[in-house]
Design a protein that fits this description.
The complex is a heterodimer of chains A (111) and B (112).
Chain A (H helix, E strand, L loop, with lengths): L3 E3 L4 E4 L4 E7 L4 E9 L6 E6 L3 E5 L2 E6 L4 E6 L8 E9 L5 E3 L3 E6 L1
Parallel strand pairs in A: 2-11
Antiparallel strand pairs in A: 1-3, 3-8, 4-5, 4-9, 6-7, 7-8, 9-10, 9-11
Chain B lengths: L3 E3 L3 E4 L5 E3 L1 E3 L5 E8 L3 E8 L6 E2 L6 E7 L2 E6 L8 E8 L7 E2 L3 E5 L1
Parallel strand pairs in B: 2-12
Antiparallel strand pairs in B: 1-4, 3-9, 5-6, 5-10, 6-7, 8-9, 10-11, 10-12
Classes of the chains: A mainly beta (111), B mainly beta (112).
Chain lengths: 111, 112
């Protein structure tokens, strides 16, 4: 079992729809959770961080964390073609330097 | 705007060459990291440093070394480049352990 698992996609949604990206992790002591966006040929860019159970909203993005289920998700409202990218889920273990990345989900937003 | 700057965007080197990849950050971060990213393998940690002159091995340190003589600069060294080191190399920094990364723009290295 991979430490951080994501559906590789591609996930295709129409413009204006809600895109839902999901991630599960295996280490129960994980404490910090991140979503990165990576455009083709570019480096990852941090878009959301979440540390406690519940929802965290930032503009069109909402991160959701459920530690009991070891599940973190990213919702993108009013999806735009410019949101088309690979989204990487990443998890930090408690007290450590190590960040575990998922393989990423490719998102296509169709105009 | 905070920045992590990698000195080269594209590099082509010959097998056996010693290769230096440079990374500079302007955020006064203590923690700096080198990753490589390959299709199907994702991001893999090569080395990291949590302080000047300190270094720790990541998941795939073989064939690499690092140098951190100043807080803002973290260098990755390929001692004798091989074709299997052809990859995208990403430098990153972060302020605290629980924070996310700021990545540089990456260096696409091709070893021929």
């Amino acid at each position: 079992q991979k430490e951080v698992e994501q559906n590789s996609g591609p996930l295709s949604v129409p413009e204006g729809a809600i895109a839902s990206l999901n991630c599960t992790y295996s280490d129960r002591v994980s404490q910090s959770f991140f979503w990165y966006r990576q455009y083709s040929g570019k480096s990852p860019e941090l878009i959301m961080s979440i540390y406690s159970n519940g929802d965290k909203e930032d503009g069109r993005f909402t991160a959701q964390l459920n530690k009991a289920s070891q599940y973190v998700s990213l919702l993108i409202r009013d999806s735009q073609p410019s949101d088309s990218a690979t989204y990487l889920c990443a998890v930090n273990r408690a007290g450590g330097f190590k960040t575990i990345f998922g393989a990423g989900t490719r998102l296509f937003v169709k105009a | 705007d905070v920045k992590v700057t990698q000195s080269s965007r594209y590099l082509v080197k010959r097998t056996g060459e010693k290769v230096f990849l440079e990374c500079v950050q302007d955020m006064d971060h203590e923690n700096m990291f080198w990753y490589r990213q390959d299709p199907g393998l994702g991001l893999r940690l090569i080395y990291f440093s949590y302080d000047v002159k300190m270094k720790e091995k990541g998941d795939i340190p073989e064939g690499y070394s690092v140098s951190r003589e100043k807080k803002e600069r973290f260098s990755l060294i390929l001692e004798s480049a091989s074709t299997n080191q052809t990859s995208m190399y990403l430098c990153a920094s972060k302020g605290g352990l629980s924070y996310g990364y700021t990545f540089g723009s990456g260096t696409r290295l091709t070893v021929v």
